[in-house]
Amino acid sequence: MNEYIVGVDIGSSKICAAAGKYDKYGKLQIRGITSVSYSGMKNGVIVDMDNTANAIKNCIKQLEGMVDTQVLGFYISLPSRIGTLVSNRGVVAVASDDREISQKDVKRVINAAKIVKVPTDKEIIGVIPKQYIIDGYDKIKDPVGMSASRLEVDSYVILAESTVISNLFKTVEKAGYEVLGMVFQPMADAEVVLKKEEMDLGCALVNIGADSIDISIYKDEKLSYTSCINIGGNSITNDIAICLKLPFSEAEKLKIKYGIIGIDNLELKDSIKVNLGYNNVIKINSSMLLDVIEARAEELLKLIMKNLKESGQYSQISGIVIAGGGLATIKGIEELGEYVFKKPVRVGTPDYVGAINPAYVSAVGTVRDVLNTMKANKSNNNVEDEAAVACEETSKKTSSKQKGPIIKIKEFLTEFFE
Question: Where is the SHS2 domain (predicted)?
Fold first, then answer.
């Protein structure tokens, strides 16, 4: 595990990439992180393959410069909006004579859970266990090492549209890289920004992007609900552009620089100078700018509130955590959120040097999830690291291009959530 693991979040307006590995003390270190703006994706679907491929290439090249390592492949986060969760149960008999449950038994029961009717336009991309059951005893988190004659798993089977996944893979290949695996974004995000107590008591994680809002609810440390709203932070930018008669790009800059809600906005001057180029400088009313930002931000939060209530789990939520780049970077969003939700609200950021930005949550979460999975597989198997075997196979395939070994996991989400 001495090589960097690279996680990439292909969002609606930005591609974020992070590189990390464990240090000698077994602690994850994020050694490089960067992002590139682009316009090749809408609502999780590739709409411009060339634009997206070029953005991926530029992003990875920037990352390579930071870590001084060639990247041949990476892991990507899969947004919940392009995946569907289907509940299903798998059942197997414990194979060993002494009835001790092994890691192989867990893999077998996960595969058994995949036996579900799949629409012709979708495919199974992974399984998320909710709980294990041994001989009728439920709520087992890790059955390995326990004794039983029968092992069951209650799980979510993740389905995704085949064409969407295929086009995503083709775009990465077009950029000159390989998809080494996928991580379900809500799970990766939760590992980075949610506390164990929050996941146990009940918490909503809201990832607000440019054109969509992904909502996940956790209870008893398990994912219990996912949903998506097809509107995001770009709606604020559009409002600024229309109301103040500005180009979209300038409106976005104003939102990022002056996005403030609440009493702090009194610090702004009456007017703000905007340079439109060619010596064309205009003044805009700062109070109007802030009124537009606050009005749309409140509307987005009310849409989230409506979705949470429709989930039927709102009363079980102890707090809300906001991540992503759409609203999380606006000052005062926590106070406005508490006013709308009537519950504690905080902005979630990765707790790593150089990556303390809510927009980097999914990229960092992907790196952490992959490394944690590799570590768990190694400790559970107590034999040669499965990732190292895959690494050797990958080295043979890419020896002409590769300077150092790149770790590859053959199975995607199934192993990630065991």
Answer: 5-193
Per-residue pLDDT reduced to its tens digit, 224-251? 899 999 999 999 999 999 999 999 989 9
Q: How far is CA 138 from the centre of its chain?
A: 29
Report which secondary-structure segment, H or E, holds 190.
helix 185-193
Look at strands 137-140 and 150-161 and give their pairing. Answer: unpaired
Q: Report the candidate in 259, 326, 328 with the shortest Cα–Cα distance to residue 292.
A: 259
CATH numbers and ranges of domains, the chain:
5-81+164-190+355-416 (3.30.420.40), 83-162 (3.30.1490.110)
Provide the pLDDT for residue 173. Answer: 96
The pairs formed by 44-47 with CB atoms below 8 angstroms and a separation of 24 or more are 44/12, 44/79, 44/81, 44/82, 44/164, 44/212, 45/82, 45/164, 45/167, 46/164, 46/167, 46/168, 46/171
CB neighbour list of residue 197: distance below 8 Å, 6 or more residues apart: none
Structure tokens at 374: 């590799």
Alpha-carbon span 209 to 80, nearest angstrom: 12
Rounded to whole angstroms, the Cα distance separating 185 from 410 reads 19
- pLDDT tens-place string over residues 367-417: 999 998 887 766 655 433 333 323 333 333 333 333 332 233 334 444 444
Q: Which tokens go with 384?
A: 């040669």
Beta carbons of 127 and 113 less than 8 angstroms apart: yes
Angle, helices 286-310/248-258, rounded to nearest 10 degrees: 80
Task: Give dist(CA 113, CA 156) in Å, integer.
Answer: 9
Find all residues with CB under 8 Å of 143, minimum gap 6, and list them.
101, 105, 106, 132, 134, 151
- Cα gap 321→217, rounded to integer Å: 10
- Altogether, the residues listed in the chain come to a count of 418
DSSP E strands in 103-221: the ranges are 122-134, 137-140, 150-161, 178-184, 203-208, 213-219
Q: Write the DSSP string, 284-347.
A: EEHHHHHHHHHHHHHHHHHHHHHHHHHTT-GGG--EEEEESSSSTTSBTHHHHHHHHHSS-EEE
pTM of the model as a whole: 0.84
Single-letter amino acid code for the residue at 158:
I
pLDDT in tens, 247-280: 998 999 899 888 888 765 555 667 888 877 777 8
> How is residue 201 written in tokens?
């008591």
